[in-house]
Amino acid sequence: MGFGRNVRKLRKEKKLSLEELSKKCGVSRSMLSQIEREEKNPTIQVACQIAEGLNTTLSRLLGEQEEKEALVIRKGERLIYRDEQSGFERHLLSPSFPSRGVEFILNIIPPGKESGAFPPHLPGVKEYIVVDEGRLKVELAGGKRKYELEPGDSIYFEADVEHRFINAGNGECRYYLVIDSNQAK
């Protein structure tokens, strides 16, 4: 099932109209309608806004997998979201379970590009990042707090603030991200 169909299914399960979801996530009703009909592919920022408005994870909206004790995800079977405008890629490395939990993600930012601003998560959501390759600039709270990370550096932050990731080097920037939603309020 595709992103748009998953959005529609969850919106209906939550008994939300397009208008109500629009108000919750800050995405226009017409844009939501086009996304649900899979006529439009949202940017990563818009996709995250929709996930927050539905009180779920982006990974869940990208696709669900059956919960098992051990689950191998082959490289070619990863859920990958690619922002067509920036080239930003999000590779889900962990299973996508229907309930909140922990997501393990590989993000790749092309040279001279950035993620764009991610909306604040619910209070209690934490993010952990370690840079594998390149230089990563992390901006929190609308750019009020800025950090520059080199390969091997890591950062932890409460993710209930706007956050942005910028490739601060000349080559590709690859970093691993863990989103812990277990304590989300």
From TrEMBL:
Domain of life: Bacteria
Entry keywords, A to Z: DNA-binding
SMART domains on file: HTH_XRE
Annotated GO CC locations: cytosol
Sequence ranges assigned to domain HTH cro/C1-type in this UniProt record: 7-61
Gene Ontology MF terms in the entry: DNA binding; DNA-binding transcription factor activity
The keyword DNA-binding is assigned to this record: yes
Entries under InterPro entries matching the protein: Cro/C1-type_HTH, Cupin_2, Lambda_DNA-bd_dom_sf, RmlC-like_jellyroll, RmlC_Cupin_sf, TransReg_Diox_bact_type
PROSITE patterns in alphabetical order: HTH_CROC1
Entry protein name: XRE family transcriptional regulator
